[in-house]
Amino acid sequence: MKYDAEDSFFARLLDDDHAIAETPASWTHPRTRRIALIGCFRPRRCGIATYTADVHDHLRREHPEIGIDVYAMRADPEQPDDADVVAAIDADDPESYAAAAAAINRSGADAVWLQHEFGIFGGRAGAMVLELVERLAAPLVVTLHTVLAAPDADQRRVMDALVARGSRLMVMSEHGRQTLIDVYGAPPGKVALIEHGTPVRPFSARSPLRDRLGIGDRPILSTFGLLGPGKGLETAIRALPAIAERHPDILYRIVGATHPNLIAAEGEAYRESLEHLAATLGVGDHIAWDNRFLDAEDLLDQIELCDIYLAPYPNLAQVTSGTLSYAVALGRAVVSTPFIHARELLANDVGVLVAQGDSTAIADAVLALLASPEERHALQMRAYERGRRTAWPQIVRQSAALLDQVIAMPPRLLSTPRTAPSLSGVWSMCDDVGILQHGHGPVADRDHGYCIDDNARALMLADRVRFDTVQAYEERAFRFASFIQHGWNPELRAFRNFMGYDRRWLEDRGSADSNGRAIWALGHCAAHSPSNDLARWAREWFDRAAQSAASVESPRAVAFAMLGADELLARFPSDALAGEILGCGAAFLEQLRSRWGTEGWNWFEPTLTYDNARLCEALLRAGRTLGVAAWQQAGLATLAWLCDRQTATAGHFRPVGSDGFGRLYQALPFDQQPLEAWASIEACGAALAISRDTRWRRHADAAWRWFFGANDRGEALASIETGRCCDGLTPRGVNTNAGAESTLAFHLAYHAMDALVWPGGARKDAGFTHADMQT
Fold it and tell me: Locate the Glycosyltransferase subfamily 4-like N-terminal domain: which residues (predicted)?
C-alpha cells in the first residue's frame, strides 16, 4: 500500500522493520500542524459565521505554522463558498456530513475544532452533527456557543453525545462551564473556559465617524446585531421618551439586518412593528435604523460611535454575545440586562445591569451616565481594561494551546518491543475456576464472572507459552480446559458461554461465535499442547463439538471453527472432520464474498464488525492447506482491502471501531479494540507465509505498534512489564480497564509476531512429543 503521508512520523516508523525513530529530545510537546475548523463561515451572515471567520483569520495570523482547513456549514446549497473553504457541509444532507468526515480523516488533520450551535445543523436539535463527529478519527474540540441548563430530550441527546465524544469542550462563560459539569456530567478537566475573542483597537473617546455621518456631539445609544425578538428592542424603545425628555438630541442607532430566518418566515414584519411602536411613543425621530449586515471593521466603527451600548436582551440564559464582548473591548459604557454572559463580563463595575424588561431602569441608568461624563469615562476605562483579556491574539493563543493538549504525542519507542510480556497480567485474572472476563482498572472484576470465549483464548495462550516443565504447563492449561469441558451442554450439543462468579451458568447455549471460539481452541490445543494427555483430550472434544459446525451460518463462527480445524490438520493431516470443516467453510465464505462484494466493497458482509481479519485468515489457511489457489487469492484480496481501511493517512493502524459495528457499508474509528490488532497480525502472518510479500510484515508491525502508542491518540495500551493491556482506545484516550480479552489478545499478538512475522523470530514450541499420537 502507498501511504498518502509518506513524510509523516508514522509512515517513516512503518518503513523500518526493526526500530521506531526516537522523538527528538527538544520536542517536549506535540505541535498542532493542521486542524479542521467546522462552523458557519463567510459569506454567510450570522454570529457563528463571524466568530468562525475571526478564529480562522486570527489563528492564521498568530500561528502561521498551523494549516487550517475550513469546512463551512451551508444552509443553502446555492450559497457560494469563500476562498478559504475546503468543503461545504449542507445542513440537511446526512451524506454531506459523512463525506466531510471522510475528507477530514484523509487530510491527516491533527485535531478538529467544531463550533456548535443547535440551529446550524440539520435534524431534531441539530442531531445531524453526530453523523460527522462519530466518524472523526482526530481529537475533537467543541466550542459550545449555547449550553442549556434545561434541555429538552432531543437537545440532551445531542449534548450528551458531544460531551462523550469531545476530547475538550470549550465554553465562553463560567456558568457554561459549571452547567456542563453539573447538568451533563462533563469531567472538569475536560472543560476549558476561553472567552469570546475581541478586536484590538486603541481607545477612542470620540469616533471620527461622527463627523462623516453629520452626528456631531449628539449623545448616541446603540444596539447591534441581527434583529429578532430575542434582542429586547421593544424594552429599549419604551425607555426613549423619558431619556428624550431630558436629552432632546438623543439618538438611538439600531444597527443590523433582520435575521434571515425571520425574513424567510415573515419578511420585515418585526422591524415594522418596532417602527410603529416608536411612532406611537413619539420617538421615531430619535431612532436611526441601519438595516444591513456589517463586515467586521464596519461593525467595530459603528460600536465605537456610541456613548452607551444597550443590551436589553430578555433571555437571561444567553451564555454569549459577540457584540457585547466587542462593546466592552472598545471601551463603551454598557447598560444590559443580567443575562449570563453580561453578569460575568460586566462584573466588578465594568458595566451597569438592569432588570429584565424594565424600561424605566434602562432610562434611569442611561440618564445617570449622561449626567456624569466623568463617571461614564471611568466606566469606559474599566470596560476597555477588561477587554484586554479577551483580545483575539490572547484568545487564539489559548485556543492553540488547548488544541496542542489533545494532539497525539508520537511514541518514544527506540525499537519494536520483542520481549515477551510478563505473564503476571494474565495470571492475576485467574482463579481456580478459570480466567475472569472483566477488569476494573488492573484488578479482576468478580461481578461479571467468566466466559468460555476468554477461557478458550487462555488455553491457546497456555499452548504458546514456554513453560519449564509439562507439569507447570498442565497446572495452568488444565484449568482452562476444564472450564471449556464444563461449558458443554449435552442436551443441546453446544457450549454455554457466560458463568457468574457463583459458578452458575447464565444461559443454556452460548452464541454461535463463542461456540466457534471453543472449537478453535480445541483444535489449537490438539495441535500445540506439550502434554500428550491434554492433546488427546482436545482432539476428542474437537470431534464432539465440531459435529454441529456444519449448521452454523455466522461467518465468524465458521471462520473460528476453520482456524481450529486447520491447526488440527497440521498435526493430524488425515482428520476427515477437520478437512470437511475447512473446505466447506472456505466455500461458504467465498459464497458470501460473491454475494456481498461490490466495487469498492470487497468483503463477506455488508458490514464490518469484530475480528474482521479472521475471515481473510480462514480463507488463506484453507487455500494453503487444501491447495486451492483461488481461496488464497481471495484471502489476500480481502485482507488487502481491509488493511487499506485500517491504515490511517499517517500510516498507523486504525482498526474498525466498535461504535460502528453493524453499520451498512461503513466503519467508524472508535472504540478501537485489542482483539482487532491480534486478528490483523495473525492474518498478515498467514498472508506473509503464502505470498512472501513484505507489505504484510509492515501491516502486522503497525498493528503490534498500536499497542504501544502508534495509534490515533499516541497512547500506549499495553505494558511488557506488567503484561496487562487496556480494553480499548476511545476518542478521549485509553479505556484503563484491563480485561481478559484485551490482555490475552496482547499476549497472543506477541506470540503471533514472534512465530509468523519477525524475520528470524520464529521458534519451535517446547515439549512437543507426539510421535505416539499420529494414529
Answer: 47-198
